[in-house]
Amino acid sequence: MGGNGPTAFHQDFITFALDRSGGMQFWIPLDKCGPEQGTMAFISGSHRLGVLGDYQTYADRTIFDLWPELAEMPLAGPLHYEVGDVSVHDHLTVHGAGPNLGDRPRWALIASLVPGDARWTGAPPEAFDPAPLRPRDLLDEARFPLLVPPEGEP
Ligand SMILES: O=C(O)CCC(=O)C(=O)O
């Protein structure tokens, strides 16, 4: 059975086309999974390096070719998850995953949190459909509910 391919090491930040960082990704497995299923590994401290470009422009290179210092930083994972576990990573944390070599799909729910005052830059986002937003709009509350309402509002 052919598994899913690997996930190249990347940052999530660029896939949102938002005007500020501070976002986080919650990865919630719906089934027990581990490295054989291609779970993620994270480069500790890599969020401090800033924005490392769009992984789709790396062509035949990897993020490690472009930022060799990443190879010197500690790698956390690939992780083992039980049902009920969750991993959280900053949208600037470099992470990637191997192929799923197991005999079943790797099911997970991914929840993305971004700052409530983030605005869409107008660049094509990979992470969501921007319609009906216009460039520099705040994200609409119907699809992107605020977890913490602004002060003074219920
Ligand atoms: O599950 C994967 O292979 C990658 C997921 C990912 O990159 C993410 O949740 O940020």
What does this structure look like?
The structure is a single chain. This protein has 154 residues and is mostly beta strands. The protein has one domain (1-154): Sandwich (Jelly Rolls). The protein has one helix and seven strands, in the order βββαββββ. The chain has one helix at residues 63-66; strands at 7-10, 24-29, 40-43, 75-76, 87-90, 95-97, 108-113. The strands form two sheets. The chain has a four-stranded antiparallel β-sheet with strand order 1-6-3-4, with no helix packed on it. A three-stranded antiparallel β-sheet has the order 5-2-7, with no helix packed on it. It is globular and about 45 Å long. The mean pLDDT is 94. It binds 2-oxoglutaric acid (AKG). 2-oxoglutaric acid binds next to strand 2 and strand 6.
Q: Total domains, how many?
A: 1
Structural class: mainly beta
From the alpha carbons, calculate the radius of gyration and give it in angstroms.
17 Å
Count of β-strands:
7
Largest sheet: 4 strands, antiparallel
Question: Can you list the ligands bound to this structure?
Answer: 2-oxoglutaric acid
Query: What's the CATH H-level homologous superfamily?
Result: q2cbj1_9rhob like domain
Beginning-to-end CA distance, first to last residue: 51 Å
Average pLDDT over all residues: 94
Summary?
It contains one helix and seven strands; from the N terminus they run βββαββββ. It has one helix spanning 63-66; strands at residues 7-10, 24-29, 40-43, 75-76, 87-90, 95-97, 108-113.
